[in-house]
Structure formats: structure tokens, C-alpha cells
Amino acid sequence: LRLEPERGALAACAELLADGLVSVPGASLDLLRDLDRAGPYGAGNPEPLFLVPDMLVAYADVVGAGHVKLRLTTRDGGSLGAIAFRAADSELGQGLLKSRGKILHAAGKLKRDDYGGTPKVQLYLEDAALAGA
Question: Rounded CA gap, 120 and 122, in Å?
Fold first, then answer.
């Protein structure tokens, strides 16, 4: 992805090869358990990268040491937390912060998040592009 300086938004600039497409209901703790059984992950067995398409950026802000935290929602009210680590000063992070209220396709790794005491699935963002870009 790259930031388009004249528009200040995310735009696709290259293809991204993902291992699968997942919906918000499909990004479940059950899926994470299945993925854990496919491990261990490493050089010969990379962790799968998932595409989560057509997500509204309901929230995006900088947290911690330059991380960009997002709340991605679907048209039917489903939501998925996402985070782009150490991305606040990168083109991706700046593009994400300027994408509040816009629809994007997100790509990343699904991880378990136990913060707050309730286990849930979070997307560790590696890339994103505005839908229709």
C-alpha cells in the first residue's frame, strides 16, 4: 500500500497473496484453535495471512508505542478489532488513521486477544487498501 499524498488515503499499489478470505463471524476462537493445530509456524510453514474484505473503519487511533488500533465493522453490525504494530509513522498507519468512516479491505494474521479478560479474535494488520481503489 501507499499513501496518495494528494488525497491522503490508502490506495493499492501491488498485489497481495493471501492464504484465505475470512468473514467477521468466521474469525472465531474455533478457527484459531484449528490454526494452532496446523502449527508450529516458521520458515517452512508460514503463519496464514487472511483477507477481511469490505470493512468500515469505525475507529482508528494511535495507542501505546506508535501502534494503530482499529475497530472494523460490517454492514450488518459485526465487528473485529485490529492493530497495526509500530505503524503510526508509516504510510500504512497514516493511511489507516485517515480512513475513518471509509470501507477497506484488510489483510493480516488472526490472533487471540485476552485483554480485558474476555478472549476474542484480533487482526494483526499487515496491509490494507480502500475498497474500490
Answer: 7
Using a 10 angstrom Cβ sphere, with 0-12 exposed, 13-18 middle and 19 or more buried, the burial of residue 109 is middle
Q: Which helix (H) or strand (E) holds 91?
A: helix 91-97
Quote the CA–CA distance of 31 and 38 in Å, as a whole number. Answer: 11
Distance (Å, rounded) from C-alpha 118 to C-alpha 112? 10
Q: What does pTM read for this prediction?
A: 0.85
| Alpha-helical segments (H) within 3-80 | 29-37
Q: Is 28 helix (H, G, I), strand (E, B) or coil?
A: coil
d(CA 126, CA 133): 18
Nearest to 97 by CA among 56, 69, 130, 133: 69
Q: Which residues pair with 73 in a beta bridge?
A: 56, 79
Length of the chain as a residue count: 133
Share of the chain above pLDDT 70, in %: 89
